[in-house]
# Entry
Amino acid sequence: MSNRIEVYTFIDQELFEKLSELMCEDLNFTQVESIEELSDKRNIIVNDTSYKNSNPMGRVVYISEEIKSGVVSLTPDAVYTENSFILNEIENYFGVLQTPKNRTFPQFTKVKQYKILSRFSVGYYCDLANLKAHENSFDIEKLSVGLQGILNAIVLKRQCAPVELEMLFSDEELLINMKISSIFVDDELINEIYRFISSDFSYLCLRINRKKGKMDLRFSLQKKKSYIARFDYEVNSSRANSSEELVKDSSERIVDHSNYHDPIIKKASLKELKRIVDFLSKREVSQDDFLDNLEAYPDKEMLKVLVDDEIEFIKKSVLNKEKAESLKEAIRLTVTNSFNEQSREEFNENFFNKVDRQTLKDLVKAENWPIDNDALKEEVKNKILNERELETYNDYLNSVQGYVEETYNVPKEDFETVKDGVEGNIAEEVLEKTGKSVEQFIRESEYYAMKEKVARMSHLFDKMQAELEKAKQTPALEVQDVLVEEDGQSPLGAMGEQRAIQDLEEKVKQLSKELEIKGDSIEVMSQKVDAANLSAAEDKQELSLAQQKLKEEILKVEDLEKELAKFKGDTSNTSGTGEDLETKLKDANIEIKMYKQRLKFAQSQIQTLEKAKKAAAAGGANNKKIAHLEKLMDKQNKLKSKMETEISSLKKDNHKINQENKILSNKIKDLERKLNNKNKSAA
# Structure
């Protein structure tokens, strides 16, 4: 399976050839004849800024004289000038993993680093950066506004600190790199950063991880601007060239890049780190050529997944021989403790279960190690463990090494290779269970190793002190006989009893001083271990508080659910008894319409009676008829007045019901909103 990433391009032929020449071998470029052929592709380079990729997982690089904002866009000059960090950024964007050496840029010969810890020191560090830029002949007027504005937006307004600021200088370009952690990234912040990155800056790279609250910001200023490049994209997974935690699959294999845009990669194990340290320890390595020597390590895929902390640990271990020995000693002590804590059968089972033939295939010839590892495990159990008393781990190793050499002709160096791999796997298992870093693992191992040495020295001290007391009470001849009996020859000669006692007293004093020094060292290391344990206890306490808070929030959510159910239940019950608010509203509206119709009828009757009254008066009708009409009119007027009163009352009731309906609806919506928020926070 190929590890090359397929990239499809629709650009000028000259630019295509230049990219193919400059880019790393992990990228395989294919030029298409029409832009329509890019529709289903994932990794694309195109010269048309109006092109839109229909693949939701796709990534597009626009190379054109016209710069497009909010995406990855650059001018052709950024490629033709062979700018190494621009090319490196394109490779990273498409998912290429870089070795430690390829993550550095040789054209930058000077580096200055700052760490901004407080919002009150923004101006101070801006002044230092401007001074450094001025010393290297860069235009500080162009730099000052952008740098000050960005730091104000991040540190002053967002109160985000610390911010790691790095300045890299070449003869013609200044590259500024900022690493920001624990920051809330939104569109407002991004727009503010863009506002301060003026057209004077040649390069801008804004990489955001919203999930982890991290942001990497790079921008460059040239003495004479020769290109424009903008890299603006979000990352959701860890990269090998950052200090973030890596993801690994169950088989710890590097998966084909072409199937995963962000490849699933393996993490360097403890035994791999030890193997790299052992490899470099055999070479002449200095501070200046460390990366060159590291690049010579045969397993390039392993180098690509090393994170910054691991590279720094390897560097310290190689340049400081004591550090390298500390790693070996820590692994050895861990396995020894495992041997002492388990029964011999359990340890033997665990030891051979940790033999990884897949890893060993490139280090040990197949014929130099038995094929059936389980059968070998049983042989060791039956022929060594059941027949011999093995008190120490070294006894076990010597017995197993002698057996496989005699029975299977396994060379000693191959057994050592297998043994180192097994020990690394056992130590790695301990690390995973305890959740400790490599540094913590080594520090605690040094502490326990020191205690072991002091215990042995204390035993020797007690023994010599006993000899001293015995020497003071024994005649010279007897002392001499004792010493001759122990050593085979007398170191006293003719010096006599007094000299022997003086020598023993000197040795006791020397041992006392060494014990005191070792005791102080143990006390210091014990304090470090206690501090680490205290930190772990505080973390556990914080976790416990968080869990308690989560339980409280869950109870609140349950109460809200009950209250909401109660309101919905009340509404349902009201509906069943004919008192539902909506039903009441409908009934009230129908009744109002009925009264309005009756009112219209009454008004019509009144108008008819008034006309009849006028006609009767004009025609000379008798007084009885007029009186009768007047009574009818009074009756209709009273009826009208009554209807108007009832309609007014119904309108008030209708308004009241409407208000109650709105209040209940708003309360239900508010409860549902709170319930959703609690569910989100609980998740």
Observations:
- Residues 203 and 247 are 30 Å apart (CA to CA).
- Residues 496-576 form the longest helix (81 residues).
- The radius of gyration is 43 Å.
- The mean pLDDT is 75.
